[in-house]
Amino acid sequence: MTLTLIGPKGGRTFRVLWTLEELGLEYTHEVANPHSDGVYTVNPLGQIPALRDGEAVLTDSLAIMNYLADRAGRLTHPPGTLERALVEARINFVLTEMEAPIWLMARHGFVLPKDQRAPGMRAVAEADFARAEVKFHTLIGEDDYFAGDVFSLADIFAADMVRWARGAKVAVTSDRLAAHADRMAAREGWKRAMAALS
Is 172 in the same domain as 105? Predict the structure, then answer.
């Protein structure tokens, strides 16, 4: 049964698209922006991405990616293993330490109504992201991948956040983080995902 990815050309949708391409799954992409017509039929909160699998609809990029990876038996490890726990710990790090400041910057840059935007939040977010870079460097050490010795969902999340940062013109000052992201962007799955958005 064909999977349908619902979301814009970018944002959190890209990481799901990249996962689909890495897994070699057949899918269609229905381009839709958050809170647009039709989105509320797949998510009552109006948020995307969403994934339709037959009659079922999944929301939240992490939940979708875990579902796809578990179903395919790739990009993660079996539940209850230490390897799985490491992947999930690294993803949680990315979401709380790396994505949070970039999203904060976006919220106060263009998402929130102008009268709700706090001045100076970009500087705060950039400082938070710089601290996260140092932590990433510590966690990855000399490894090629972010959660063990194989490519996993943790690498997709980390490299996607560098894509976000670069798109927001946030300096990526960690050589290890930049090198990791560039290696991940050299993967065929990344290239196919980027081509799918053009």
Answer: yes
Same domain, 68 and 88: no
Distance (Å, rounded) from C-alpha 107 to C-alpha 121? 9
Q: Token pair of 104, please? A: 């904060």
Q: Are residues 86 and 151 in the same domain?
A: yes
Tally helices (H) and strands (E) across the chain. 9, 4
Do residues 21 and 95 share a domain?
no
Pick the closest to residue 60 from 45, 75, 72, 70 (CA basis): 45
Range of the domain at 53: 3-75
* Spatial distance between the Cα atoms of 37 and 192, rounded to a whole number of angstroms: 28
pLDDT in tens, 149-195: 999 999 999 999 999 999 999 999 999 999 999 999 999 999 999 99
